[in-house]
Amino acid sequence: LYGNAASCTTNVSVLDPSGACLPPPPLAFSIEGTIRTPEGMAVANIPVTLTGDGFSANTECDSTGHYIFEGVPGANVYTLKPHTNANWLNGVSTFDLVLISKHILGLSPFDTPFKQIAADANHSGSVTTFDIVQLRKLILGFSDTITGNTSWRFADADYVFPKPADPFASVFPEQKVFNGLTDNLIEQDFVGIKIGDLNHSADPSDAFQPADVMNRTAPAEPFRTDDANTPAAIIEDNGNQ
Predict the structure, then answer these.
(1) How many other CB atoms are found less than 10 A from the CB of residue 209?
(2) pTM (global) more than 0.85
(3) Which residue did the predictor score with more confidence, 16 or 132?
(4) For residue 115, how many other CB atoms are within 10 A of its CB?
(5) Distance between CA atoms of 141 and 148, rounded to whole angstroms?
């Protein structure tokens, strides 16, 4: 009235002790699968990593080859990858060298892409006498690993080789990539391939152990290129059969 005015300022604090006004937490899901050999045997205790933008988790397969990641936020791009470079000598013997040499000579070609991958000891993308040389060094104790490769390789079980007779014609996936999660993922499986084992003698329950310690004691017999058991001699002997 009569041009008079008044005002006041009031501060109101709203409390939310139950958190009802907070945004909902991001959705979380699980990712699980198994790792098995081409023959269907469980590969145990293999480390598996899951990485994304600002996210990293690790787990291991159990004795049945099963692994699982739980509580994985949905809004991310993830890479899933198993890996081991332990126990190189598991399943590797001179008989495997004979089988590789027969494949090279065309006497008994490998009948699956996984065998060719197993025979490619130096990860060159081919099977040659150099692979035999590297594996023989392992057997003799001159080395406990092969540079450039790992003792096991893991192929995405969903992958179909376009040329099974030449698995090196294209790069086969050794990891899985997920562009965001909207549900739990099951059966995210891998095929475990033991490098150097061509007769399936490796024990997949002993696939992972602490890094091998190289036996630095020289073999009783020196490693000679004219030895009857060297790769060259094996190949020549099989070629004369």
Answers:
(1) 11
(2) no
(3) 132
(4) 22
(5) 18
Positive or negative, the Cα torsion across 218, 224, 227, 230?
A: positive
Structure tokens belonging to residue 105: 């000579």
Note whether 126 and 166 are within 8 A (CB). Answer: no
Distances (CA, A) of 190 to 70, 101, 109: 19, 28, 25
Average pLDDT score over the chain: 85
- Please say if the pLDDT value at position 189 is more than 70: yes
Let me know: does 151 contact 206? Beta carbons within 8 Å. Answer: no
pLDDT digits (tens, 9 = 90+) for 74-103: 889 999 999 999 999 999 999 999 999 999
End-to-end CA separation in angstroms for the chain? 121
Please state, as a whole number, how many other Cβ atoms lie within 10 Å of the Cβ of residue 32.
16
